[in-house]
């Protein structure tokens, strides 16, 4: 019974102060009059609403509602199901293709929603290719991108965790995976871009050194000289030079 009530419940936050009466009126404008069973203020600017029918809560999650000049997005309560957005998925891809990929991450609740441009947009009413799927997750997360019917799309949901394509575990990515093998040095624990022991590392350091020298030369900075005392030591003047003054006359001293 508690699960049924949770399925009929939404939570939402407002960006400005509003009375419960105002919120009730705006929600009923969007859904229908008398649709609410509970309207509760959880803390300042955060509320919970329970509806008579599950379809009513699902409609509000999909559409949200307007409060004064602010649009309010609604979400399912924590622990029931997760709203998963599929971004940039080509519109012609069928729902059954989406279901076949997502069902490995949890139980899909309800139909897949094809999102449209919102009211006020120049293209309002047209589909934008994005989808909204409600899932009760049985995995820690869903990867940031998925390939569905041969096409890649971006995946977004709350509490999303990094996914490693090397070890197929959540919580880190391939770059930080201890099982990743560097193709330069064949050691585990890093990718080639971060390699500090491969044969290209010394070459890269030499290239950086040569580049710094070339830059210093262009900017007129003195180049470091070899430590050769014979080059740095000035030759003493000979006796003839010592007896000549600056005008070429004999130095009486």
UniProtKB/TrEMBL annotation:
Residues 193-219 have a biased composition (Basic and acidic residues). One of its GO terms (biological process) is activation of innate immune response. SMART domains: ZnF_C2HC. It comes from Paramuricea clavata (Red gorgonian). One of its GO terms (molecular function) is RNA binding. PROSITE patterns: ZF_CCHC. Pfam families: zf-CCHC. SUPFAM superfamilies: Retrovirus zinc finger-like domains. The lineage of its organism: Eukaryota, Metazoa, Cnidaria, Anthozoa, Octocorallia. This is Zinc finger CCHC domain-containing 10-like. InterPro entries: ZCCHC3 (IPR042509), Znf_CCHC (IPR001878), Znf_CCHC_sf (IPR036875). Residues 193-253 are annotated as: Disordered.
């Amino acid at each position: 019974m508690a699960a049924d009530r949770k399925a009929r419940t939404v939570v939402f936050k407002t960006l400005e102060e509003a009375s419960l009466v105002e919120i009730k009126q705006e929600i009923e404008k969007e859904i229908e009059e008398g649709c609410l069973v509970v309207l509760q203020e959880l803390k300042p600017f955060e509320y919970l609403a329970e509806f008579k029918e599950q379809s009513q809560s699902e409609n509000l999650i999909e559409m949200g509602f307007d409060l004064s000049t602010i649009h309010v997005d609604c979400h399912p309560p924590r622990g029931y199901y997760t709203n998963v957005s599929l971004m940039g998925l080509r519109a012609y891809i069928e729902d059954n293709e989406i279901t076949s990929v997502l069902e490995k991450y949890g139980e899909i609740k309800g139909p897949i929603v094809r999102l449209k441009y919102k009211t006020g947009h120049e293209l309002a009413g047209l589909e934008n290719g994005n989808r909204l799927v409600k899932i009760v997750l049985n995995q820690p997360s869903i990867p940031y991108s998925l390939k569905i019917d041969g096409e890649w799309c971006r995946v977004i949901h709350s509490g999303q965790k990094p996914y490693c394509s090397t070890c197929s575990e959540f919580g880190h990515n391939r770059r930080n995976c201890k099982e990743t093998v560097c193709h330069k040095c064949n050691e585990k624990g890093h990718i080639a871009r971060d390699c500090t022991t491969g044969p290209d590392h010394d070459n890269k350091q030499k290239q950086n050194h040569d580049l710094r020298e070339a830059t210093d030369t262009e900017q007129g900075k003195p180049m470091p000289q070899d430590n050769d005392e014979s080059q740095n030591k000035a030759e003493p003047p000979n006796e003839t030079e010592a007896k000549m003054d600056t005008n070429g006359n004999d130095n009486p001293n």
